[in-house]
Structures are given as C-alpha cells and as structure tokens.
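During the practical work, I worked with a single protein chain and the tokens that describe its fold, as given directly below.
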Amino acid sequence: MTKKFHLGWFMNFIPPEWDSEWASPDVRNWANGDFYVDMARSMERACFDFMMIEDTVMVADAYGGTMEGALKNSIFAPKHDPVPLAVKVAANTTHLGVVATMSTSFYPPYLLARTCSTVDSIAEGRFGWNIVSSAEDRAAQNFGLEGLPEHDERYNVAEEYFDVVNQLWDSWEPDAVVMDRDTNTFADYRKVRTIDFDGKYFKSRGPLNTVPSPQHRPAFLQAGASPRGRAFAAGAADAIVAVGTGTAGMKEYRDDIRARAEAAGRDPDHIKLLFCVSPTIAATEAEARAEVERLTSSAVYIEKTLVSISANTEIDFKQFDLDKPLPEGLTTNGERGSLEHFMRGDGTPGPKTLRQLAIDWAKTGVEFVGTAEQVAQQMGEAMEEIGGDGFLIMKPGWDLNRKYIHSITDGLVPELQRLGLTRTEYTKSTLRETLREF
C-alpha cells in the first residue's frame, strides 16, 4: 500500500448528538456553529482535504405522513444554512477546504455564482460547491412550486445552470483588476463583459459584480449515482460523493466514472471519488463491535434511520413491517441513488427485512470496525482494491459527538499516516489543488 488517498467529512449543520451520555455540554448552543468549528480544527490537525456541509430546505413529513418523526428525532430539521457556517469555518481554519451544498432548483444562477465567488475570496481559495438539484417536492413547495421536475429533467436543468454560472465566473478576465493609480483605474472595463445568456431554462445578462476569486470558480462536488447523475458528475465534478456496496461495487463505480470522464474529454485523474464510510474505532475489536451492536439494535436508531431515508426518497417506510422484506417495485422521483443503495443492503444474497436494511444503511456499504490500527489497515487494503481516490467519513449528525470525532482525527488518522496512506501536511493553497495533489 503505497498510494495516498484523500479524506473528507460529510456532515450537516444540525444539532449534534444531544440525547446520550456523550452529548456535548454546549449542545444547546449548537446553532452558533462553534461545535463544528471545533470539529474543523480537529480535522485540519489531521490534514483532511475538506469538510462538506450537506443541506435540504424542508421539514420532512414522508415518514408516517407527519412532521413528528423529523422534529422529534432532529432528522432533517432543524437544519441551518450551510453557507454562513462555511464562512465561519473558513475564517477559523488555515488549510482545510470547506464545501457548502446549494441547489440548482432554488438558487438563481446569478445569486449562486456571486455567493460562491465571495465565499471563495473569504476562504482564500478553499471553498467548494456541492452541486445538487434537490429531490424533495416538499422543498419545492417552500419556493412556490407544486413539485420538482422529473428526475432526469432536473439534470437537464442542472447542466444548463452549470453552463450559466461558469460563464458568469468567466465574465471577468483574470487580470481585469489593475488598480492603476496613474490612470485612476480600478478595473479595465474592456476585460469585464456581459454574458447575455438566453437558454431553455435560464436567462442572465451578467457580468458578475464580484472580482475573480482565488480559484476563479469554487471546487465542484457532486453525488451522481443514477446513469444521468453519473454522466453529469463525470463532466463537471472535481470530487464525487460516492456510495457503494463492498469494494467490488466501489471499484465498478469508479471505473465507470473514469471511463465517462475520458469520453467527455476530461482527465480522469482530475476527478476524485470519495466513498462514504462510518468507521467504528475502539481500544479492542470486541469493544468496537459491541458499539456497533449497541447502536444498530436500538429501536430509536432504527427509527431515525428510516425517517432519514424516507425524507431522501419521499417514501413512507413507516407503513412497512420492520421484520418483513420490502415489497418489490418501489420507485421514487427523489434520490434514486439513495433508494437503490438502501434496497441493496450490504449486497449479500437473499431477501432482507426492513430492519436489516436499516442496519446495513447505517454501515454505509462497507464495514470498518476495530482498533485504529486494524481499521487503518482495512481502509488501505480496500482503497488498493478500489483503485482510489479516498473516503468521506459520514456519521449521521444526530449521532455525532466529540468522542467520535476524536476517535477519527486523533485515533484512526495517525495510524493511516504511519502507513503512508494520508497526508501529514498541507502543501497546496487552494481546495482544487489539494484534491489534485495525488
């Protein structure tokens, strides 16, 4: 195992774990963002590439047809806007990248392009945009819409949206700002132009009224699991949020994305696939397995998992018997990749009960359980089999505490570094450069 891999963390701006003995004493003040600033500093000490802040803009009511499951369990609500938190994290770190989720369904392109440019300047080139088209009709109804377009049509909209914002970021040439005191000229008007975009879905005159940021445009993250989503991600993303069932499934996904990228004229090495995992670290393997069993055997944990997947897919999983297999033929206009991954379970043959699927979902597709030394070895071997490019630590926000954070940043990562598998220092100044370092 000689090839380094990347590390990120998939998280949410929601209350961290508040209902267990490991809850932080300051949990009631979670909304000020300080808990996540502390988390970011721990991640930076461990030389993570970035923190990615997921987002949705609704209070879900798919589970049982009411908002009770979401609000009682703090699943999907409350959830605060990721952009101000990204600014706060960037202002309190030096090297760590920070990625905010913003939807092409709800942000006007000009507003998003301007916001990204501003935040990337504040972050000195360490900002990323997680590109989503949103998947929930309940979110659309908060913006005056009846519902979202069909799944693949949302990607058609997203592709044109991506074109608009990139043209807006290009509306200023890199050397447009001259600040020439002799001619009393701040910016050369000949190097700032309108874009006069007039497409099927969007229209924008331009130019942006922000100066080019250090990266010129943010680093792009995307999670494309469906065929349409994979095509978009292969053409646009600098890094992909990926899930998989076992290392074989992860390798298949990575090989497919790289082939699509090459066919689109991109260098496949410029796209980093980071697979979501939830390692469990303890002093002994037995203690780590006992921790997994404690979590997944809890009725509260199962309910929280089902509330979460119901919100993602807008399918009411409360209607099904926990101890029977799900009916065949479930479909969604929501997150199809999430539904497919959930229905697959851990990939072992034979029908699974809904309870077992919920337990498998909590393990995010591949199991890393044991001591820090064992899990580091397991991750290295898995990444060698997959071929690259890294892992995204993913712990449900309602299950996140400082103990878990430190088990990763101060337990697992030092072992990964000792094996030469992750970086021990930052050598690049921007997030895009950090992602392309190896």
User: Anything to note?
Assistant: The first helix runs from residue 34 to 45.
